[in-house]
Structures are given as C-alpha cells and as structure tokens.
Amino acid sequence: MFSQIFRKLKCSSIVERFIFANVAVYVIVVFIGVFSVLFNLPSVASDVVDFIELPASFVQLACRPWTLVTYMFLHEHLSHILWNMLALYIFGRIFLGFFSLRHFVGTYLLGGIFGGLAFVLSYNIFPYFAPFVNSSCLVGASASVLAVVVASAVRAPGYRVNLLLFGSVKLSTLAWVTVIISFLMLSGENAGGNFAHLGGAFAGWLMASMLNKGIDITAVINKPIDFFASVFRKRKAGQRRKGKFTYSSSSAKHSVDYSYNARKKASEAEIDRILEKIKKGGYSSLSDDEKKRLFEASSK
Q1: What is the pLDDT of residues 212-244, one digit of tens each?
Q2: Cβ(140)–Cβ(80) under 8 Å?
Q3: Other C-beta atoms within 10 Å of 258: how many?
Q4: CB 185 within 8 A of CB 193
Q5: What's the pLDDT score for residue 164?
Q6: Environment class of 60 (CB within 10 Å of its CB; exposed 0-12, middle 13-18, buried 19+)
Q7: Has residue 256 been placed in a domain?
Q8: Do 11 and 75 sit in the same domain of this protein?
Q9: What value does the mean pLDDT take over residues 9-29?
C-alpha cells in the first residue's frame, strides 16, 4: 500500500505533492487525537498541535520559530482543509501555466511566511488583540493559496476562471474581491486569519511584480532547499558508489553535456520569448502551440 502511494506521489505534480503533504499532516494529527482520547492522554494531541501551529505571542514564537513554516500545513477541521486544498488544486494548476515549479514552491512558502508574520505583527501592534495574544494561534494554508492566486492574477489578469455560481470571472477580479473581503473582515471573528490572507496576497503580488522586472524573490526559499537537497544527493550517491569501481569516458561525457546544454539554452530562449509575449499581449495572445510549450515547461 505505502509503496503504491510513494510511486504515485513520485509521478505527481508539485501541486499534488503539496496537497498530499497537507492531507498527510491532517490525517496524522487526527489519528493522534483519536488515540490520545482512547488512552486518556488528551495532552498528547494538544502538545502535537502546539508544536506545529503558529503562536501570536513573540515570546512563544521565539521558542518555536519553525511554526512560521509548519503552521501552513496544519488545518483545524475537515471543511477547512477541503476548501483550501480544492483552491490550491485549481489555482495551483493555473499558476503553473505561467510560472515554473520552483516559483510555485517559493510562492507557496513565501505566502505562508508573509501571512504568518502579518498575523503575529497584527496581534502585537493593535490594542484590540492585546487580551488574546497569549492564547491565539494560526493554522491553515489560506495565506499560501492566496499568494498563488494573486501571483497568477498579476501575470495574467485577463485569464478567466469559471465559478459555479458566478460563471466566467477574470482572475484579477477574483483576486481583488478576495483581498477586499479579507480587508473588510479585519474586525471580525477571524481577524487574525484575514491579516494572514492579506500578508499572503502581498507576497504573491510582490513575487510576480518583481519577476516581471527580472528579480526572482523565490530564490530566497529555493536556494536553501537546493543546498540541502544537493548535500542529501551527494551523500546518497557516495553510499551507492562505496566499494565500487566506475569508469567513464571524459570525451563522451563532455559531448553529452554540450548537447544537453545547447538544447536547454534553446528551450529557455523560447520560454523567455513566450513570457515576453504574455507580458505585452496577455495570455490570450499565445497560439495553441505556445500555450502547450509553456505548460510543458512549467510541469518539469
């Protein structure tokens, strides 16, 4: 069973992998909650949640800094995760039509981090939240999802999304409505969550706007990930080669590298041309072949 899940996960898209991570965390926490009740150990479940959720208090955050990342994979109840993952699936696929896999990873995490910081700062700046600072926490991927939505809207504002009750709506209109609703609800019951939404939206806008100027702020996230991934791959490759003698032809390797680099350079030049065309005329100005090439490149 687990081997089948891992094989399917290996062949899935980056959006599906993030959805899997969110669902896995939710299922694990639910199972821990069930067993903690059955064995009369309610503190176990609460301790696990406390370890993951983002506290509003600066003091508590200083003791659990990792929660600025982990909270965006934790959800409170079933409807919470269902709506967030449905939105992530729909808008994540749209996002990959205009950006790369690496941009998705960076935008999701930056959106969550910006949203988390907006939540913490709001609780420590505004007097309204003062009585609740030590007892309030944030969970959910809403800020990350909104970052994905807004980034897509900045890149292709005229792209239309079909909504069940409203029909065809421009992506930019949908993003603006979501942001305005979050702003209007800043004094409601979920005020902290709506501050997080606005933080995520700002992250998405910043990412797409800076990328249009040639500056990729998702590198702040992706470079550390690349570093640790390369260390892991080197260790794994070293273990495989241990005790084995290998021979490779240097000239053959250089030939293969040259051919690969030439193809890669040509492909990157074509994608740059397509992105420039989107910037000038919008997504609708692309031909079917150009749309297909952009989608294939973003899925790699």
Answers
A1: 999 999 999 999 988 888 888 777 777 666 655
A2: yes
A3: 10
A4: no
A5: 78
A6: middle
A7: no
A8: yes
A9: 91
Last residue of a domain, one of 187, 219, 251: 219
Instruction: Please indicate, yes or no, whether residues 173 and 117 belong to a single structural domain of this protein.
Output: yes
In this prediction, residue 300 carries a pLDDT of 55
Closest to 109 in 3D by CA, of 260, 239, 221, 223: 221
Residue that terminates a domain, selected from 219, 253, 282: 219
Is residue 178 located within the same domain as residue 291?
no
Looking at the structure, do residues 56 and 198 belong to the same domain, yes or no? yes
Does 42 share its domain with 179? yes
Residue ranges making up the domain that contains 295: 262-300
Q: Total domain count for the chain?
A: 2
pTM value? 0.77
Task: Judge whether 246 lies within some domain.
Answer: no
Shared domain for 215 and 268, answered yes or no, is no
Q: What are phi and psi of 55, to 5 degrees?
A: -80, 150
- Say if CB 91 and CB 104 are below 8 A apart: no
